[in-house]
Structure formats: structure tokens, C-alpha cells
Write a structure and sequence with these properties.
Layout (H helix, E strand, L loop, with lengths): L1 H15 L5 E6 L4 E6 L3 E5 L4 H12 L4 E5 L10 H6 L7 E4 L2 E3 L2 H11 L10 H8 L5 H10 L9 H12 L1 H6 L7 H4 L1
Parallel strand pairs: 3-4
Antiparallel strand pairs: 1-2, 3-5, 5-6
GO molecular function: glutathione transferase activity; maleylacetoacetate isomerase activity
Pfam families: GST_N_3 (PF13417)
InterPro entries: Glutathione-S-Trfase_C_sf (IPR036282), Glutathione_S-Trfase (IPR040079), Glutathione_S-Trfase_N (IPR004045), GST_Zeta_N (IPR034333), Thioredoxin-like_sf (IPR036249)
Length: 188
């Protein structure tokens, strides 16, 4: 018991040195320490945006809870003064984490990977990590767009078709699908 108390004391001391506020949750099932945001993350998203979809996939894979903030691009909501304060370029996605605002999907993925290390998106091996940069969160939305928006015949691309089928089996990917977003029903 004393060793556990010493370990917890060291963890708390290290956490206090971090430059951002977090909550820690200890998982009794051997899951270790899980880093969670102090306040709920906010994702400004448009349900059909492939860039937004890749961030939704990453958030789901990492098990991070977030508030979905719909931005209707067809109605020009990305050009509103409120949204332009978050992202002067007027693009989605935008992730707000406390006082940090990120507006590029790749930057958001890298930020999430560094700040919330549980359920890593990338392997530790450098070669495998390089390969993963090209796949999963980036590839899945592009395949989906090719199939749904352009009616691409996937029989010519058996590997991509198998990947798409595998992605579609994963809850993190299913939950990130455009049709499963709160703003999807507005335009459907």
C-alpha cells in the first residue's frame, strides 16, 4: 500500500508541473493513468467535412468526450464574426481545449496525440508511425467521399475496399460518419 501511495504522490507531483490543467483518472483494471481535459473539448464541425471527420475519428479512438458544435457551411456560418474569432480563415474543423484553439485537422491530431497519450493513434516504432500518418484518420474520409459523393466503383481498388470495410466495423469510425452527426439531419 505504501508503494502505491508513493507512486501516486510522484504522479501528482509531475502532473502539477504540466503547463495545462488536467484531471487524472486511475483505472483499476490495469489501464493506468488516463489524462482527461479539465473542461469538455469543443469541436466545431460540419458533418460532411472530411477534415472534420478525421478529427472526430481521432477523438473517438482516443476515447475523449467532446461537445459537437455544428457549423453549417452551406449557410455561411463559418463566415460569422463569432466563428471568425476562432478561425480567421473560416474553415472547419476547429478544436477548443480550454484556452487553446486549433484549426487544422493535422495540427489537431498531433495536439491530441501529445496532450492525451492514452489510446495512441500512432505506434511507437518510427517506420510504422510514418506509414500510419498516411492512413486511417486521413484515408477513411477520402474513401468515404469517393464512394458517397462520386459513386466510385471500388471493385477496381480491392485493398482500399478492404480497408473501407474494416473502418466501417470500428465504432470510432462509425460514430464519426457524416450521417451520424447532429447537424446531418438538418440537410438530409
Amino acid at each position: 500500500m505504501q508503494r502505491l501511495e508513493e507512486l501516486l504522490s510522484r504522479v501528482v507531483a509531475e502532473v502539477k508541473q504540466l503547463p495545462f490543467p488536467i484531471l487524472l483518472r486511475l483505472e483499476a483494471s490495469g489501464g493506468g493513468v488516463v489524462v482527461e481535459p479539465k473542461t469538455k473539448l469543443q469541436l466545431y464541425s460540419y458533418f460532411r467535412s472530411s477534415c472534420s471527420q478525421r478529427v472526430r475519428i481521432a477523438l473517438n479512438l482516443k476515447g475523449l468526450d467532446y461537445e459537437y458544435k455544428a457549423v453549417n457551411l452551406l449557410k455561411g456560418e463559418q463566415l460569422s464574426p463569432e466563428f471568425l474569432k476562432l478561425n480567421p480563415v473560416g474553415y472547419v474543423p476547429v478544436l477548443v481545449d480550454e484556452d487553446i484553439v486549433l484549426s487544422d485537422s493535422f495540427a489537431i491530431l498531433m495536439y491530441l496525440e501529445e496532450k492525451y497519450p492514452q489510446h495512441p493513434l500512432l505506434p511507437h516504432d518510427l517506420q510504422r508511425r510514418g506509414i500510419n500518418y498516411q492512413a486511417d484518420c486521413f484515408l477513411a474520409p477520402q474513401i468515404l467521399g469517393a464512394i458517397k459523393l462520386f459513386s466510385l466503383d471500388m471493385t477496381q481498388y480491392p485493398l482500399l475496399s478492404r480497408l473501407n470495410n474494416a473502418y466501417n466495423e470500428l465504432p470510432a469510425f462509425q460514430d464519426a460518419m457524416p450521417e451520424n452527426q447532429p447537424d446531418a439531419s438538418v440537410e438530409a
